[in-house]
Amino acid sequence: MDILLIGGLWLDGSAWDEVAAALGPLGHRPVPITLPGQGDGSTSATLDDQVAAVLAALDAAQDKVMVVGHSAACTLAWLAADARPERVAKVVFVGGFPATDGGTYADFFPIDEGVMPFPGWGPFEGPDTADLDEETRRRMAAAWVPVPEGVAKAVVSLTDERRFDVPVVIVCPEFTPAQAQEWIDAGDVPELARVKHIDFVDIDSGHWPMVTRPTDLARLLAEA
């Protein structure tokens, strides 16, 4: 199966290199996506541009695909399911949840000259970064790309209720499956409250398992 891999804020397609290398021998075709504005040199990209890039990769596949979104890009994966519900076999959310219709994509940190740069590690101290040593932090931050304002502040539009028929897997890194279920039950993730089939998978990592546990993440994706 083709597995589309979509990184969250500041990540380009290379963030998935080790996961992709492990998925191939497991019988799948990994398709890491470098999103417009996150690795192609553009600072004017919009969320629509990023959705278009994901859909282009999806449409290039011969059969149904599994779409994997990490962190903020869980919303991008869900937008793909909304746009092509008949072509998406499964959506996997890694360390995040999709935004609701009418919500903003990722307006989390200050904008500086039209982009949202990585704000430093301060906001992520705790379970998110517990498995990152100083060298890994330095290497990650040096590779990351500021996110265009047109992506971060975009309004999410979901239109096709067939998305709720697409099976979902939630990979839980810095939170537990029990916590994720509690948040859904409490109404904190309205989109997932309406999904007909959800599975939860635990992985013992911080927020970036593609960096710290790539082989284990690849195995979990293959099993999914």
TrEMBL record:
AB hydrolase-1 domain spans which residues?
A: 3-219
Please indicate if the UniProt record lists Hydrolase as a keyword: yes
Q: Name one GO molecular function term.
A: hydrolase activity
Instruction: Fetch the SUPFAM superfamilies from UniProt.
Output: alpha/beta-Hydrolases (SSF53474)
Alphabetically ordered keywords of this record:
Hydrolase
What residue stretch is flagged as signal peptide?
A: none
Which Pfam families does this chain map to? Abhydrolase_6
PANTHER family referenced in this protein's UniProt entry, alphabetically: EPOXIDE HYDROLASE
Which protein are we looking at?
Alpha/beta hydrolase
